[in-house]
Design goal:
With 199 residues, the protein is α/β, with parallel strands linked by helices. Helices cover 26% and strands 21% of the residues. It contains 4 helices and 6 strands; from the N terminus they run E-H-E-E-H-E-H-E-H-E. Strands 2-1-3-4-5-6 form a 6-stranded mixed sheet, sandwiched between helices. Helix 1 packs across helix 4.
Length: 199
């Protein structure tokens, strides 16, 4: 399918999610790219709208196995119009539980059509020198994998001529979801070696 531009929408307080998204974009290699950094609360006051000729990449960190509660209202307000989408979660080397499934379901509900989903490891926001958790992640290997993932997305886009050719992307997760991320009420907090990518 002919995609004229890419929108990268991400929440990345520690920069790890943003670095993964940028690597994916390098692989997609789309010339026209718009960054929508939803990290600051003020940025989430603007509704995200996408068109059928765009590719939407949505990436969030995992909080307690879920999409961060502070993003739910903003994500649910996305207006997509049969927009092809990529869903990405970044987790702190524990598990991402239902987060990827939840993000995928939100994107579908808002009019997006997920064509690829992936989960990556990023250094945990609670990591420190005494208790390192996924320290230094994403590393070079992670970013290389994300770039290859982007290349595969580009190849998939080139191989399909219409929306009717797109099959559902199956991702791990359980619904109803298992955790309540409202326990994490503080804004601007970011959330084994195996990569979990689905095309």
């Amino acid at each position: 399918m002919k995609i004229q531009s890419t929108k990268l929408a991400y929440f990345s307080p520690t920069g790890t999610t943003k670095s993964i998204v940028q690597a994916i974009q390098r692989g997609i290699n789309q010339n026209t790219v718009e960054h929508i950094d939803a990290t600051k609360p003020s940025a989430r006051k603007q509704q995200l709208q996408t068109l059928e000729i765009e590719l939407l990449v949505v990436a969030v960190p995992v909080y307690m196995g879920r999409v961060p509660a502070l993003l739910i209202e903003w994500l649910n307000a996305i207006q997509a119009h049969n927009t092809l989408a990529v869903c990405v979660v970044v987790y702190g080397n524990k598990v991402y539980d239902d987060a990827l499934l939840e993000l995928q379901k939100i994107v579908i509900k808002c009019g997006g059509i997920p064509i690829a989903c992936s989960a990556y490891i990023g250094e945990h926001s609670f990591s420190n020198s005494d208790t390192p958790v996924a320290q230094g992640r994403p590393d070079e290997n992670d970013l290389n994998h994300a770039e290859v993932f982007g290349q595969k997305i580009r190849e998939k886009l080139q191989s399909i001529s219409s929306i009717s050719q797109i099959s559902d992307v199956s991702v791990p997760g359980v619904y109803p979801y298992r955790e309540d991320t409202k326990l994490w009420s503080v804004d601007l907090i970011a959330g084994a070696i195996d990569f979990q990518s689905k095309l």
